[in-house]
Amino acid sequence: MRRLISLIAIFTLITNISVAQEVRNIIYLIGDGMGLASVSMMQLENRYEPTIFDRADNIALQKTYSLDNRVTDSAASGTALATGQKTNNTVLGQLPDGTPLETLMEAASKLGKATGVVVTTYVQHATPGAFYAHVASRHDYATISEQLLYSDLDIAIGGGTHFFDERYGGREQALAAISNRGFAFYQTLDAASASSAPRKLILLADKEIEQRTGYLASATSAALNHLEREGGDSGFVLMVEGSIIDGAGHGNDAEGQQAEMRDFMEAIEVAVAYAESHGDTLVVVTSDHETGGLSLVSSNSDFNLSEQGVEYRWTTDGHSGIMVPVYLYGAGAELINGVIENSELGAKLKAIVAER
Ligand SMILES: [Zn+2]
After folding, report:
1. What is the SS3 assignment for 201?
2. What domains does the chain contain, in order, with CATH numbers?
3. What's the 289 CA to ligand 1 centre distance in angstroms?
4. Closest CA to 353 of 17, 16, 22
5. What is the pLDDT of residues 310-336, one digit of tens each?
6. What's the confidence (pLDDT) of residue 231?
7. Distance from the CA of 245 to the center of ligand 1, in angstroms?
8. C-alpha dihedral sign at 278, 16, 27, 101
9. How far apart are CA 242 and CA 35, in angstroms?
10. Mean pLDDT, residues 16-35
11. How close is the Cα of 177 to the center of ligand 1, in Å?
């Protein structure tokens, strides 16, 4: 009997250790401006059949306020999610006094992991920028462009050619700067996929990517292939942003937000499928803040009547201060739960990366 108990104790110890060691790769998906109402809208569209959100292994809620405001912008919330520390609105990758904060990507690449970002907006935008840049203002695109080239990112996919051209005084000079920093530059996903360059900058548009159908899922697959190869045994960290969910919220455009959410969900499907076929991958899906104060209200307030349908009502053209969800899938999904700060989520992911 005593032997059985000690065997059970050893087994428990081994399984606990293996849970902690299991996370080699992290795929971090951020729906910019995605609130619980955005998710509920997709559940409704899917007639309450399980969506990719409903298939999460674990969930948490995070508080999004910034250091200087109850309602955050994408720079402060991106910084919290990427570095583990809150900062003021507009500030990117550093404290208000200018102290730079180590990002999840910087921590990962120090440990030999490959890192990358995939977005539907420009790669210098606040959310992706929080993962590699350190500037007082998110609007300083020239410096952010330059810092991207000096970062350790192995792949960056999105728009943003315009800001490189502006920073370096023309396309030719921009291309020279990009290649001097060791990046191979591509204007299509196909051209990039055909190349085996170790560092890739794939800019598909001057600013935002306009034709998005299927783009985010294909770009996520392309980034996963690249990072798997470059990261080897050390693994990788990939950030994927559904960037324009936020823009649809600012425009109080329910149909636009549904389209952006569909694209984002396709990318989540790709990430979760990857985690399911590779046992050592943690998928984290969250938002940086809610945009639009969206609510799903009954078309008729008399609940004695049968189904009257719902209306999408927006309460602001800005951001709101409500909590946003965190969905976790795959290895280590049990490591994050409860009601947490946005910065706590960033800090936990850095701790998970450091454990390997
Ligand atoms: Zn916004």
Report:
1. strand
2. 22-137+216-355 (3.40.720.10)
3. 8
4. 22
5. 999 999 999 999 999 999 999 999 999
6. 97
7. 9
8. negative
9. 13
10. 81
11. 31
Q: Cα of 51 to ligand 1 centre, how many Å?
A: 25
CA distances from 122 to 244, 254, 266, 302, 316 (A): 11, 23, 20, 46, 25
pTM over 0.90: yes
Q: How close is the Cα of 194 to the center of ligand 1, in Å?
A: 35
9-18 mean pLDDT: 48
Best CA proximity match to 28, nearest among 94, 127, 102 = 127
- 118, 170, 179, 200, 243 from 236: Cα distances, Å: 14, 33, 23, 15, 22
Residue 104 token pair: 């999840």
Q: Are 120 and 263 in contact (CB under 8 A)?
A: yes
Token pair 């999904």: residue:
333
DSSP 307-333: ---EEEE---SSEE---EEEEEEETTG
Tell me how far apart the alpha carbons of residues 141 and 133 are, in angstroms, rounded to a whole number: 10
Closest by CA to 36, choosing from 245, 215, 299, is: 245
Least Cα distance to 203 among 143, 146, 158 occurs for: 158
Distance 38 CA to ligand 1 centre (A): 14
Rounded distance from Cα 18 to ligand 1 centre (Å): 40
Ligand 1 centroid distance, CA of 250 (Å): 7
CA angle 51, 55, 56 (to 5 degrees): 125
**Is residue 49 classed exposed, middle or buried when 0-12, 13-18 and 19+ CB atoms within 10 A define those classes?**
exposed
